[in-house]
Automatic annotation (TrEMBL):
Protein name listed in UniProt: AraC family transcriptional regulator
One MF annotation (Gene Ontology) recorded for this entry: transcription cis-regulatory region binding
Entries under PANTHER family matching the protein: HTH-TYPE TRANSCRIPTIONAL REGULATOR GADX, HTH-TYPE TRANSCRIPTIONAL REGULATOR VQSM
Domain HTH araC/xylS-type: 233-330
GO CC terms, sorted: cytosol
Keywords: DNA-binding, Transcription, Transcription regulation
Pfam families in the record: Arabinose_bd, HTH_18
Length: 332
């Protein structure tokens, strides 16, 4: 229940290729319990598992792992075969090179390259030929390759920079969850920069763990926002340990061994605040429970620290554009 929810923008963007192809996805949304009204609300969020199932459902329905955004369809199973081809490599560098070589065998596949820049490594994507107005495929490919590499070596690859070949999009605030690092927009190519020390690391995965990994991937990789190393992420993890008690800022600062003033300043530098982080966590916990029938609206309100259900109703509508009751009705 502590997982970050997914902005409705990404679900709308994921459906863009299907719309382009004239595919009627209303039945798929009904099957997944995702209402069109929910997707039309800009502030709405959906649960990570719903987003995973949406991506998987679109792959199967469109018979295309690129979801209609590429120059040609990518047959379902292509990603899995690439993983099988790479899993036996002795280190991350060999695995990434083999994976990119595998995709280069398909002339219409998006072009990714891996280049050394002194002590750094840049994974670049040529996204100029893609039909990708919302940049969904660009975002997805960069996220998938980063998280696949991290999974292969059993540790998160720290990103030093993320660059994008387009201006900062309207949903740019969500990029902190996808690319927890400094970002640059309007560059020649979209790319990720990380330290070369990861390349010689041995793979810690094998055919057995790959089988389990592929049951939900790469869709699952997209639906798990990267908590990263930022103070905001550390604070969220600290708050989520005991969400029912909701410690105040002074108590959290003491736990982090810094002054409240320093905590406020660092959060301002990350363009957020203690209250905003607390509200985001409350929102995500509420959405988790509203998608299930175990707790009443009053019980959810109490668990989130609201003294009155009406206060919870007002706050939730402010966060998502919908009342808790309307949200639960659309999730059923």
């Amino acid at each position: 229940m502590r997982e970050r929810t997914i902005a409705s923008h990404f679900a709308r963007a994921a459906l863009g290729g299907a719309r382009r192809l004239g595919f009627d996805y209303s039945g798929l949304l009904l099957q997944l319990g995702i209402s069109p009204e929910l997707l039309d609300e800009p502030r709405a969020r959906i649960a990570p598992e719903q987003f995973t199932r949406l991506i998987q459902g679109l792959w199967l329905a469109l018979d295309d792992e690129y979801l209609g955004f590429g120059n040609a369809p990518g047959k379902p199973g292509t990603f899995a075969m690439m993983c099988h081809a790479s899993i036996h490599c002795r280190n991350l560098e060999k695995a990434l090179q083999r994976g990119l070589l595998f995709y280069s065998l398909f002339p219409d596949a998006p072009r990714l390259t891996l280049n050394r820049e002194d002590e750094w490594v840049r994974l670049s994507l040529d996204d100029s030929p893609l039909w990708d107005p919302d940049h969904f495929l660009t975002e997805s490919l960069l996220v998938i390759w980063h998280r696949l590499g991290s999974w292969l070596i059993g540790q998160r690859i720290r990103l030093e920079q993320a660059s994008f070949s387009y201006p900062r999009p309207d949903h740019g605030a969500e990029y902190d969850l996808l690319f927890p690092c400094p970002m640059v927009f309007g560059t020649e190519r979209s790319s990720l920069l990380f330290h070369s020390r990861y390349l010689p690391m041995p793979l810690l995965q094998d055919e057995r763990t790959l089988k389990h990994f592929l049951e939900r991937s790469p869709a699952d990789l997209l639906s798990r926002p990267d908590d990263g190393d930022s103070l905001s992420s550390r604070l969220r993890r600290l708050l989520s340990r005991d969400a029912a008690r909701w410690p105040d800022l002074e108590a959290v600062a003491a736990d982090l061994h810094i002054s409240p003033q320093t905590l406020r300043r660092h959060l301002r530098e990350e363009a957020t605040s203690f209250q905003e982080l607390k509200d985001q966590l409350r929102r995500d916990i509420a959405i988790y429970h509203l998608g299930r029938a175990e707790l009443s609206l009053q019980q959810i309100a109490e668990q989130l620290g609201f003294s009155e259900p009406s206060a919870f109703h007002r706050a939730f509508k402010k966060w998502t554009g919908l009342t808790p009751g309307a949200y639960r009705a659309q999730e059923q």
